[in-house]
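User: What would this chain look like folded?
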Amino acid sequence: MTIRVLIADDQDLIRAGLAMIIEARPDLTVVGEAADGVEAVALAQRNRPDVVLMDVRMPRRDGIEATRDLVARGNPARVIMLTTFDLDEPVFAALRAGASAFLLKDTRPADLAEAVRVVARGDALLAPTVTRRLLDRFADRLPADPRASRHLAALTARETEVLVLAAQALSNAEIAARLHVSTATVKTHMSAVLTKLGLRDRVQAVVLAYETGLVRPGPPG
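Assistant: Here's the prediction, encoded as structure tokens.
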């Protein structure tokens, strides 16, 4: 199956370069190019890409606001946020907005293409330890969300346990060892968590765990 990619960047040269990288892969194709966040949202709604390569800083509406808008509209596209600088603040904002990954613009072409594939599969690209570091640092900015807390009530005790361990940056294998179950069982529980909570991927599940107070900053328990 060909993965459909939308490119959103206000620099013509960057868009052209990204398009060349994508089109050079037989399993990837570009379905649109946007020069700002407003255009990115409109094209994503019309062309229904699987993945959006979204620049953080764009005119009219930046990439973080555009990502938040897509999520609010229920658009299923996964967003990979692109930036020139590796800064915690925009990474954190991008995660909260609903981005599934975060890459520097000088990422090697082969790594960028693989990132698109990973995110299109529904996997999170950011390492759990990176996600936890960011959320630990900015947790005091996460407002309590009573609606999210109510959603957690839909989880079984074991699903909640898996979510907590995932939010503590444990891998599926580590969770399996901790709970004395198979890795396949952990994957099944995590899939159920995402489905019940209406989340896109593991990163969003970790963010929600912090938002609801299920996990707070500090060393894993």
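The chain has a mean pLDDT of 85. If you want, I can go into more detail on any region.
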